[in-house]
Design goal:
The chain has 15 helices and no strands. The chain has 311 residues and is mainly α. The chain has a single domain, classed as TRAP transporter T-component (Serine Threonine Protein Phosphatase 5, Tetratricopeptide repeat, Alpha Horseshoe). Helix 3 runs antiparallel to helix 4 (117-135), helix 9 (191-204) packs antiparallel against helix 10 and helix 13 (268-280) packs across helix 14 (290-305).
Amino acid sequence: MGHREDFLIPGLTRLSESPSAKTLESSMKKIALLLSALLLQGCVQTIAIRTMGGIMDYGLEAFNEEGDLKLAEGALGSNLKLIEALIKGDPENDKLLLMASQGFNAYALAFAEDDSVERARAFYLRGRDYGMKVFARNPRIREALDKDVPTFQAALHSLSKDDVPAVFWTAFGWGSYVNMTRSDVGAVADLPKVLAMMEFVRQADPTFYHGGPYLILGTIEGSMPQVLGGRPEKAREYFERALEVNRGKFLLTYVYFAKTYAVQMQDQELFESLLKIVDEASPDILPEARLSNAIAKKKAKLLREHVNDLF
């Protein structure tokens, strides 16, 4: 047989041409140092992002205490983009995802839905989708999302009180989107799952977000005509329970009580009395929700301007 060439792997030298053990050891050390530096850089970035997330907690608290709507609108818009930038660097960060969910839902409610239905829908979907990334991390929930309502309800039983924020803010965005998209049969078909999620929150922590589950359940039930399955008296019960929980200090409760139940029942006297409470309440009645109460006053004024169209 003729002379056989050494078998070569592309990119490697023949054994006879391989580097010395000392050179190889030196190269390996350099690679190890490079990998360590990259890992350290990643760790430092994660630590920085999570530190910023902690700072953003205070920002969210300060935002909710702001009573000036113009200042709040500008601050929330810029902070939401900052939160999204942080999420790009740490996409599995539950705290940041829930901040984004709450923030986009708040922006839609406060600064979009009274001016542009399309913008509000888009922001509510973003609020829903950020919350969904946390909510659907549970494998049973993820598998049940596309299944029937009983299967979905059964999956909700795998959750605990710790899951309440993710369930609430996901359902808030989802339900608000559906409420503004009644002409879309596909969207309306999701409503039973939203109701199941809010029912879970109501049972797990009825006081969450100033009686939020009662407020949302009341709004959904009060918005649906009886011929389509709406239960106005159940809606009234939910609103009254929300007012018990927040002691009548979370003024959006009165606004949505008037906008849904009172209008649905064509009870103008109740409508006027609910909005009067909002008008006369002090902006500082609930300092930690000063912004929400300022929004309630704005919405009450807009509702009153359209009273002739509503009754």
